[in-house]
What we know:
Layout: H1 2-27, H2 31-55, H3 60-85, H4 92-98, H5 100-114, E1 122-124, H6 128-140, H7 147-161, E2 166-168, H8 178-197, H9 205-229
Antiparallel strand pairs: 1-2
InterPro entries: CDP-alcohol_PTase-I, CDP-diaglyc--ser_O-PTrfase, CDP-OH_P_trans, CDP-OH_PTrfase_TM_dom, CDP_ALCOHOL_P_TRANSF_CS
Pfam family, one: CDP-OH_P_transf
Catalytic activity: a CDP-1,2-diacyl-sn-glycerol + L-serine = a 1,2-diacyl-sn-glycero-3-phospho-L-serine + CMP + H(+)
Amino acid sequence: MRFTKSIPNLFTLGNLYCGFLSIGYAATGQYKNAAILIIIGMMLDSMDGRVARMLKAESALGKELDSLADIVTFGVAPSFLVYYTSFYQFGLLGFMVAGLFPLFGAYRLARFNVSTKSSMNYFIGVPITAAGGILAILTLFGELIPNIITTVVFTGLCFLMVSKLRIPSLKEVPLPKYGTIVTIFLGCALFVIYKGFYGQFPYLIYIATPLYIAYVTYRFVKGKNKKDIE
Length: 230
């Protein structure tokens, strides 16, 4: 029983480890691998909360751990990635500007954690997970995107994270409908593009992808059985 309640935290720790590996890949010049690892982190992040609810293993520890993992994988890692691929040409100034992204992201996470007004229908400000994922995708296709666009998007995401704009949430979208279909389609498309143009995937993808497919299959079968019962 104790192990079962720890399973969601393992997904969260996997997300955190993806962030660490992404920073390492970026520091050694493997920018595509670094971007892919952030996307894998998004995949794991989308699973830990639902797995916790599925196993009835939600806890205050899990929520705090999730926030810590998010600031590394979707805050620090993308900022390093953008610096090494776009802002490095500005020297120290570029490094300082890149460091603003995790600052805005951390503030956004803290504000969310202490907020007493929460809704399943929308987020207040762009979630750091989405912001970090967008930067990762921009980097993944960096050869096709001018640096000025990356800079504008980077700046816009910083302010959108701490804004009061209401961003529609997909939490209420039932699996395996739109959210899962889009995730699988995007994953397959990135796999084909990456294998064709950029070489080898990080080995972690071969662990995370089957795990995610098994999770989606389980959710689909469980949902279908519920409908049959009803």
